[in-house]
Design goal:
This protein has 261 residues and is of the alpha/beta class. Helix content is 44%, strand content 18%. It binds D-glutamic acid.
Length: 261
């Protein structure tokens, strides 16, 4: 089984990171659109053009399913991507529904952080109409985190200053959950921990997306088994260089660390 996963950049590696744990015998083709990142600051039409190109590339690689490991791309993707393509296409949306259900018994508000395209897009607002009838969810765009992650600029001082500035208008003690509505944001868990009160839970859509992928492919989780599948990496349509592959390994290590905090 061969699965295509794509993102504007290295954010979707957080989905791949989990995917190889639960589908150790699957082959993956990971596509980062490094020539066009960040998507969160592009127009809808531009992003739709990139998606069309990437899906065609992955289909040529004979994948059995495609995961859009990018909330921003999913937020502008039209239904045609799902209906006109021969293999299942699984998108990602901020896990607001999951957060609301999982912590329904806990008092407090939910904060969603994502890119500007996702935050201001109709898809998220339609979702909120369905799952947030009591207006319990606040939204913040954090575009700079995508750029920081892309340049491996994980310096504490800059990140903390940015988060404090961006969240200044919000009473952080009011929140029970922070929804990470951009796959690039998974790298920053250690920093959110420092900014938000201890009781705030972090919720991302990775597990739910992969659950849906496995349901569509009719396969079961095989967590804990040795990895026997292979992963190929492409940056905007070309195979990655040895240097870039090393960079990807560094991101994967960072994700291991972010998960363990
Ligand atoms: N990783 C992407 C997401 O989940 C988008 C980042 C960007 O390119 O702006 O939204």
């Amino acid at each position: 089984m061969r699965i295509g996963i794509f993102d504007s950049g290295i954010g979707g590696l957080s989905v791949l990171h989990r995917a190889v744990q639960i589908m150790p015998d699957a082959d993956f083709v990971y596509y980062a659109d490094e020539a066009h990142v960040p998507y969160g600051e592009k127009t809808k039409e531009q992003i739709q053009g990139y998606i069309t190109e990437i899906i065609a590339f992955l289909l040529e690689k004979q994948v059995d399913a495609i995961v859009i490991a990018c909330n921003t791309a999913t937020s502008v993707a039209t239904k045609k991507y799902r209906s006109s393509i021969a293999v299942p296409v699984i998108g990602m949306e901020p896990a607001v529904k999951q957060a609301a259900e999982q912590y329904s018994a806990v008092p407090g508000r939910i904060l969603v952080v994502a890119t500007p395209v996702t935050i201001f897009g109709n898809k998220l607002h339609d979702l909120l109409e369905r799952v947030d009838p009591e207006d319990n969810v606040d939204l913040v765009a954090l575009p700079k985190l995508v750029r920081i992650a892309e340049r491996e600029g994980f310096e504490e001082e800059e990140i903390m200053a940015y988060l404090e500035e961006a969240l200044r208008g919000y009473r952080l003690e009011d929140y029970k959950a922070l929804v990470l509505g951009c796959t690039h944001f998974n790298y920053f868990k250690p920093y959110y921990k420092k900014v938000f009160p201890d009781r705030v839970k972090f919720v991302d859509g990775n597990e739910g997306t992969l659950r849906q992928l496995m349901r569509r492919l009719k396969v079961q989780k095989k967590e804990g088994l040795e990895r026997t599948g292979k992963t190929e990496y492409y940056f905007s349509g070309r195979p990655v260089t040895a240097e870039e592959e090393k960079k990807i390994k560094r991101y994967m290590l960072r994700l291991d660390q972010a998960e363990s905090v």
